[in-house]
Design goal:
38% of the residues lie in helices and 18% in strands. The protein has 652 residues and is of the alpha/beta class. It folds into three domains: 159 residues, Rossmann fold (3-Layer(aba) Sandwich); 185 residues, Rossmann fold, CATH 3.40.50.12580; 216 residues, Vaccinia Virus protein VP39 (Rossmann fold). Strands 14, 15, 16, 17, 18, 19, 20 and 21 form an eight-stranded mixed β-sheet that branches. Helix 1 crosses helix 15. The radius of gyration is 28 Å and the shape is globular. The chain starts with 7 loop residues before the first strand and ends with a strand.
Length: 652
């Protein structure tokens, strides 16, 4: 036992849901090295929840907020976190423990690789995923990064044989004589929960000869304002409604899924890493195919890669090769029948599962603690590039900014201001970026519609068919009907008007456009329509004054708020609130700061495109609250060098 000098560990707690991924390591360490100091760094309001979770050892731990980390980090010998996106701590030997097997293509990125001194890997799959990532993106393995074959501590209890399945099912008030199906989807946009989750649960819950357990990802605990995590939907409430309808359905609310895994006979999932935890138990998995997750969602993170092809990779698809994959809910019955009646066949390729998934099966926590102690005994120090002390570092940053301003920032600002001037010209003088006459002539010569002509000029395959995908997605919400009054801000070439009216026949369609040539084209193109009353207005760039208040059912803006100044955008949004009826919808795209990062900026600069204006999501949320608006959904679509966020907003 360690009894002399106190060593100091610090665990980063990203959310209360992630505690389960290092809980066993923490308890084992405190039990073995009881004289050492152990900190937990709280990144959110998790202190009280943790106190309730581990009351027996809570007081043995020093609890600090990440806001105060500068006052403590010089005391840390080692920093550990399960959330790789937190990154390591400067000047502290930092270890990433991860929070699940790799399954979505988001386990690694360049910053993560360069920010840690060590990765604790779960198994061969985890290690192979890392090497595949650095090969795919032409990166080099940092000499400062150590890879340790440790295992997965969260799964240790899956192999301890101390679980009473019948007792657990009874505690959930489920029938112990029935087999149990577990639905545990990923939380992400375009994963099965967001796409058809309610439909899936209703379909399998209708199979009354089975117990059904639904287990949500820990991200679903986030507030509905966190659209990345929840899509703006309170899934616990929505599924809770179904639980009242089906007596054989239970929404499992414990953070740790292990007991639900142990008591279930079949797992239904999509791209969640929970599939691997179920497969190591030698049980069958049915996968819901989610093609848009690969072709749209991952493309947002890796715009330079062919992410559509990743649907066939074990590193990103949750291990589909080991189970049955289906496309829609009507296939569930056959899939369940197949795996249930062929117990020796499923999961497929069992030898590979046992070979690649876990190092040190059932002993992950023990091996992790041994390795941590070994590193402490060696008195390891970070070999990553060291930062100077805080005051020096701040001054150095100031000096660098001052020195590099003329060389780097100033030219970018000048180009950005030029784009603002061009935008202003478009709004005030009607001089658009794309001339109407030349565009119309070129499209006619190519015997194409203007939309098809414009899309054929693009060199990115996903940009072809972009308009159709957007309109199809909007129509899928079933909020657009015949005989409504529409308004579109900045209709430009009219490509969205053209597509919409092929499906829906509105009563009135207001069009606001600043460019005179396109305004004339739109008038000639649409005002002869005998079924729809088209009203073409000269846009001012800030208001919709030619439209009456409380008169519109839908307001659209496609590719407009991506370049307007924030003040212009919010002026238009304020006007949209005015013209919309109660219960009506506002639909537009923009660049939200939550989706725009330094990599996005790099890509735009590489593309030599400087027009994007980024909107603060916090500011937008405040605007919605103050104006009785509710964001009911959000989706992403390729635009320019990266992705744009489409928002569906309802006026209360």
């Amino acid at each position: 036992m360690q009894k002399n000098k106190k060593r100091t560990l610090a665990f980063g707690l990203a959310s209360i849901g992630e505690f389960q991924f290092f809980e066993k390591i923490l308890k084992k360490y405190l039990e073995t090295y009881y004289n050492d100091n152990v900190y937990i760094i709280h990144y959110k309001e998790t202190n009280n929840a943790l106190k309730q979770s581990i009351p027996e050892i809570y007081k043995r731990i020093i609890h600090i907020s990440y806001k105060n980390i500068e006052n403590y980090k010089t005391d840390f010998d080692i920093f550990l976190t399960t959330e790789q996106y937190i990154l390591g701590i400067e000047n502290v030997y930092s270890i990433c423990l991860f929070h699940g097997q790799p399954s979505k293509g988001l386990t690694f990125n360049k910053n993560i690789i360069n920010s840690f001194d060590a990765f604790f890997l779960y198994g061969k799959l985890h290690k192979n995923t890392y090497y595949d990532f650095i090969k795919t993106f032409s990166l080099k393995h940092p000499k400062t990064l150590e890879l340790f074959e440790v295992g997965y501590s969260k799964t240790d209890e899956l192999f301890n044989n101390r679980f009473d399945k019948n007792e657990f099912l009874s505690s959930l008030k489920l029938d112990i004589s029935k087999k149990t199906i577990l639905y545990a989807p990923a939380f992400n946009e375009y994963a099965s929960l967001r796409e058809i989750g309610i439909e899936i649960i209703e379909e399998i819950a209708s199979l009354t000869n089975y117990n059904i357990i639904a287990k949500l990802a820990i991200d679903c605990l986030e507030p509905t304002t966190n659209y990345y995590a929840t899509g703006g939907i309170d899934w616990f409430t929505e599924i809770g409604k179904l639980q009242k309808k089906y007596s054989n359905l239970i929404l499992y609310k414990e953070l740790n899924i292990n007991k639900a895994l142990l008591c279930s006979d079949i797992l239904i999932t999509d791209i969640s890493s929970v599939s691997f935890d179920f497969l190591v138990l030698d049980k069958p998995v049915i996968f819901i195919n989610t093609p848009k997750f690969f072709s749209i969602y991952l493309q947002k993170y890796y715009p330079e890669a062919n992410t559509k092809s990743w649907e066939n990779e074990i590193y990103t698809n949750g291990g589909k090769e080991f189970g049955i994959s289906i496309d829609n809910v009507s296939e569930f019955k056959n899939a369940i029948f197949e795996v249930e009646n062929n117990p020796n066949k499923y999961p497929l390729n069992k030898e590979k599962i046992n070979d690649i998934l876990l190092y040190n099966k059932g002993k992950g926590a023990e091996k992790a603690v041994d390795k941590i102690n070994e590193l402490l005994v060696k008195k390891v120090k970070t070999k990553r590039k060291k930062a100077k002390h805080k005051l020096y570092y701040k001054q150095r940053i100031k000096n660098l900014i001052k020195k590099k301003l003329n060389l780097l920032i100033k030219p970018i600002l000048i180009k950005y201001k030029l784009e603002i001037i061009r935008t202003s010209n478009k709004q005030t003088s009607g001089k658009g970026f794309i001339g109407a006459k030349e565009t119309i002539r070129a499209a006619q010569e190519a015997n194409l519609s203007i939309c098809d002509y414009r899309e054929n000029q693009e060199n990115h395959p996903l940009k072809k068919g972009r308009r159709n995908r957007i309109i199809e997605r909007i129509l899928s919400y079933n909020i657009i009907e015949n005989n409504q009054t529409f308004l579109e801000i900045g209709a430009g070439t009219g490509m969205y008007v053209e597509k919409i009216i092929k499906t829906i026949t509105p009563k009135t369609y207001h069009i606001y456009e600043t460019a005179n040539d396109w305004k004339d084209y739109l008038a000639n193109r649409f005002q002869n329509n005998s079924q729809i009353n088209f009203l073409i207005h000269q846009a001012s760039g800030v208001d919709l004054k030619q439209t009456n208040s409380n008169s519109c059912d839908i307001v659209f803006a496609h590719g407009v708020f991506v370049y307007l100044s924030s003040v212009q955008t919010f002026s238009y949004l304020k006007e949209s609130v005015r013209v919309l009826k109660k219960g009506a919808y506002l639909i537009f795209d923009c660049y939200l700061d939550s989706s725009f990062n330094t990599n996005s900026i790099r890509l735009w600069i590489d593309y030599k495109m400087y027009f994007p204006v980024v909107i603060s999501e916090k500011l937008l949320n405040s605007f919605c609250r103050e104006n009785d608006l509710t964001i009911i959904s959000k989706f992403s679509e390729i635009h320019g060098a990266t992705q744009v966020d489409y928002l569906i907003i309802r006026k209360k």
